[in-house]
Specification:
Layout (H helix, E strand, L loop, with lengths): L6 E9 L4 H13 L6 E4 L8 H4 L1 H12 L3 E4 L11 H12 L3 E6 L7 H14 L4 E3 L1 H6 L34
Parallel strand pairs: 1-2, 1-4, 1-5, 2-3
Helix pairs in contact: 4-5
């Protein structure tokens, strides 16, 4: 990112059929706070069961989210998080002293920690309206124009001949 452009990069981790409802709720909450682009980190085939088989509703949601500007990337697996009393203070302090880019990583399990969600809400109320939401891909390449849609990520994509022609997700089992 160049110049004085202030950005907000948010990643929503651990998206899979078991956490889909919570992830959709968090994504809606982010929309309510003016975060119009998020990187969605999807666990694509836990136990080698393709998403289209396990959760067609989730695949439809991902396709719609990508159409509205979110980026989809493959997460290798879900991960736990160490929580401490300091994490809330560090979250707030980090938002206050962040430079041009404020980066937030959210997980479905964040909903189990009301104080953490309140701290995130505090950060978003003070930051989302003054920063342009970008995907992690845009952050990495550094050259995205303000307001431009992200390029689709290819990490969850399948060859066109094996996809549904729209989303790139496939209902075939891995070889």
């Amino acid at each position: 990112m160049t110049g004085s452009r202030r950005t907000l990069a948010v990643a929503l981790h651990d998206i899979e059929p078991a956490t889909f409802e919570r992830c959709a709720l968090i994504r809606d909450w982010l929309d309510d706070h003016g975060v119009n682009r998020v990187t969605l980190l999807v666990i694509p085939a836990r136990d080698l069961h393709p998403l289209a088989e396990r959760s067609p509703e989730m695949v439809s949601w991902l396709v719609e989210r990508e159409r509205t500007g979110d980026a989809i990337a493959q997460a290798l697996s879900s991960s736990g998080r160490l929580r401490s009393a300091l994490s809330l203070a560090l979250l707030r302090a980090g938002a206050l002293v962040s430079g041009a880019t404020l980066r937030l990583d959210l997980r479905p399990s964040d909903l189990d920690h009301p104080n953490h969600m309140l701290a995130l809400e505090w950060v978003l109320k003070r930051s989302a309206s003054t920063r342009e939401a970008v995907t992690y891909e845009q952050l990495a390449v550094g050259g995205a124009q303000p307001g431009s849609p992200p390029r689709p990520l290819t990490s969850l994509r399948c060859p066109p001949e094996k996809s549904d022609g729209l989303s790139g997700f496939t209902s075939e089992r891995p070889a």
